[in-house]
């Protein structure tokens, strides 16, 4: 028995086309289902790809799109793109189905129709969403695939595609620009005053020239991607989320959209002129399937699934010893750094981000931070998927663009330093901050940093108003004294006892520590009624002994206790770990005296 009459990997549009023909019954003189009944929704094509990707283990064969693989991946083949949703460009219309003589054809998952379209009244106009995605800010190299080998297309596959080219004009054969511009339906739509299907719903969209200038200087080491979404509700995809998009690549390194003042293409059915992201700079991916990525999805290989207690404990001890060595044998600081690495926002109560544990290591100057700050930075880069550093100087505060800002002329969200996805780590070096005056930008940036560390929110500037966006970013601050610009949850005076350099851990150890941090950080946690009574009594007693203690201190103690339990792989607080939290707090407060 032969295989399927399509190749999901090399010719995904063939699978889409065959599923479309089957769904409408195109072999009949009168189609059994009119294409308008789909209204742009799936007609069975996605099930073919789900079967190929997840039941036939085809996912591992799909190349991940990046600057290296872009050199050999084929247009109109199946690819994966991993990135953060940096901007949402709205919706666009397109000619989803049309008649070519007596045959119905579809343009779904395509940029350009494979056949000239007539002015048939039966044409179906559908919608798709546009997402501008970028590589995740601060993504570390160990999260990338070690190698992406070019697929060895079999002679059978090549022959199959050659036959399809001869029989049915493969979608890779794009219609020339002059045919697009002179398309009868395009002219008719303009004459009738109807909106072009490629035009965004956003009526504030302005001339494409401004948008063009925004994307012309793309960093060649960081490949953006314009992702087109078809079959998912808007609530599934949010700004700053990290996704893997699997779909049809449309990219041509030699194709450029020419633009002049009377560019008719800007009124056509196609999106290139709408957003004017040059195809030779920004590839297009027509998404078939997408999935939101967690930290575990960036771990190379096959991580251990069940966090067994003995394994968690052994891994914890090994990681703690390494952190202690990195920090010059300061065990107290190493304990707090470990808890800091495990912290995350697991709930929000009013304006309180429950679970965060920002850390301020004090007692550092320019010289010592160049040693220990560099060590910690290198360590975090080897352990965490997304790490970022901020040199907090007066000049930086006065000129940096920390918050994303809406550019209404280009109709684009201009990214800021603090536009970071969930699970990012930000290291702030305040040791080079000197006295001086802050300008209006510096004052605004200071407010942004305080808002981030206290509430885990970032204000996005939409010129006429501001929108608070919730985030989840771990913050570690280096400073000589207590930071007033970035007031952390925990302040720990740093007291190293040696300057000896540490050895680079072996690959097996790094893999185990990455798995440990990702797995333990995601564990659920609860407090039983018995231990809750113990905690309440201890907090009352502590308040009676020290009237300066407040709700913020007690919240920090509870967070520390929860993180200590999680660090041992436990999902409920024990009295032993509550006592450990109290002891860590005692040691910390002694250093502050």
From TrEMBL:
<dbReference type="GO" id="GO:0003682">
    <property type="term" value="F:chromatin binding"/>
</dbReference>
<dbReference type="GO" id="GO:0006261">
    <property type="term" value="P:DNA-templated DNA replication"/>
</dbReference>
<feature type="compositionally biased region" description="Low complexity">
    <location>
        <begin position="205"/>
        <end position="214"/>
    </location>
</feature>
<feature type="region of interest" description="Disordered">
    <location>
        <begin position="141"/>
        <end position="214"/>
    </location>
</feature>
<dbReference type="InterPro" id="IPR019140">
    <property type="entry name" value="MCM_complex-bd"/>
</dbReference>
<protein>
    <recommendedName>
        <fullName>Mini-chromosome maintenance complex-binding protein</fullName>
    </recommendedName>
</protein>
<feature type="compositionally biased region" description="Acidic residues">
    <location>
        <begin position="166"/>
        <end position="177"/>
    </location>
</feature>
<dbReference type="Pfam" id="PF09739">
    <property type="entry name" value="MCM_bind"/>
</dbReference>
<keyword id="KW-0539">Nucleus</keyword>
<dbReference type="GO" id="GO:0005634">
    <property type="term" value="C:nucleus"/>
</dbReference>
């Amino acid at each position: 028995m032969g295989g399927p009459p399509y190749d999901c990997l090399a010719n995904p549009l063939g699978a889409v086309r065959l599923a479309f023909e089957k769904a409408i019954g195109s072999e009949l003189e009168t189609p059994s289902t009119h294409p308008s009944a789909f209204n742009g929704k799936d007609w069975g094509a996605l099930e073919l790809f789900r079967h190929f990707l997840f039941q036939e283990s085809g996912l591992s064969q799909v190349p991940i799109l990046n600057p290296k693989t872009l050199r050999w991946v084929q247009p109109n083949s199946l690819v994966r793109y991993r990135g953060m949703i940096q901007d949402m460009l709205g919706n666009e219309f397109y000619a989803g189905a049309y008649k070519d003589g007596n045959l119905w054809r579809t343009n779904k998952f395509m940029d350009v129709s494979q056949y000239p379209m007539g002015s048939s009244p039966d044409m179906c106009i559908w919608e798709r969403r546009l997402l501008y995605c970028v590589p995740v800010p601060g993504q570390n190299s160990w999260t990338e695939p070690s190698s992406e080998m070019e697929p060895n297309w079999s002679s059978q596959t090549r022959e199959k595609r050659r036959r399809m080219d001869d029989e049915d004009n493969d979608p890779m054969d794009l219609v020339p620009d002059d045919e697009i511009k002179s398309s009868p339906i395009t002219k008719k739509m303009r004459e009738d005053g109807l909106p072009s299907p490629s035009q965004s719903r956003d009526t504030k969209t302005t001339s494409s020239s401004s948008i063009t200038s925004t994307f012309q200087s793309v960093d060649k080491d960081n490949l953006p991607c314009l992702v087109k979404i078809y079959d998912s509700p808007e609530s599934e995809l949010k700004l700053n989320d990290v996704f893997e998009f699997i779909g049809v690549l449309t990219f041509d390194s030699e194709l450029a959209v020419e633009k002049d003042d009377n560019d008719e293409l800007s009124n056509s059915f196609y999106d290139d002129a709408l957003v004017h992201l040059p195809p030779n700079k920004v590839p297009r991916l027509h998404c078939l399937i997408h999935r939101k990525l967690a930290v575990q999805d960036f771990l190379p290989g096959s991580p251990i699934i069940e966090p067994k207690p003995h394994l968690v404990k052994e891994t914890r001890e090994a990681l703690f010893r390494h952190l202690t060595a990195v920090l010059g044998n300061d065990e107290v600081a190493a304990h707090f750094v470990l808890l800091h690495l495990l912290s995350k926002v697991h709930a929000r109560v009013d304006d309180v981000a429950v679970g965060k544990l920002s850390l301020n290591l004090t007692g550092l100057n320019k010289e010592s931070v160049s040693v220990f700050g560099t060590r910690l930075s290198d360590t975090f880069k080897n352990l965490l998927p997304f790490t970022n550093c901020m040199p907090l100087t007066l000049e930086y505060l006065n000129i940096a663009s920390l918050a994303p800002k809406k550019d209404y002329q280009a109709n684009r969200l201009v990214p800021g330093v603090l536009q970071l996805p969930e699970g990012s780590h930000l290291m702030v070096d305040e040791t080079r901050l000197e006295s001086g005056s802050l300008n209006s930008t510096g004052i605004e940036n200071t407010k942004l940093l305080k808002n981030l560390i206290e509430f885990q929110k970032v204000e996005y500037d939409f010129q006429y108003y501001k929108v608070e966006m919730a985030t989840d970013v771990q913050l570690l601050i280096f400073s000589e004294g207590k930071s007033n610009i970035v007031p952390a949850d925990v302040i720990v005076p740093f007291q190293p006892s040696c300057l000896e350099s540490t050895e680079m851990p072996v690959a097996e150890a790094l893999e185990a520590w990455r798995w440990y941090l990702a797995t333990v950080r995601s564990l659920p946690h609860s407090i039983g009624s018995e231990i809750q009574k113990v905690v309440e009594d201890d907090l009352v007693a502590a308040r009676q002994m020290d009237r300066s203690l407040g709700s913020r201190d007690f919240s920090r103690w509870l967070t520390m206790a929860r993180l200590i339990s999680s660090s041992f792989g436990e999902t409920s607080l024990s009295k032993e770990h509550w006592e450990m939290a109290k002891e860590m707090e005692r040691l910390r407060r002694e250093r502050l005296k």
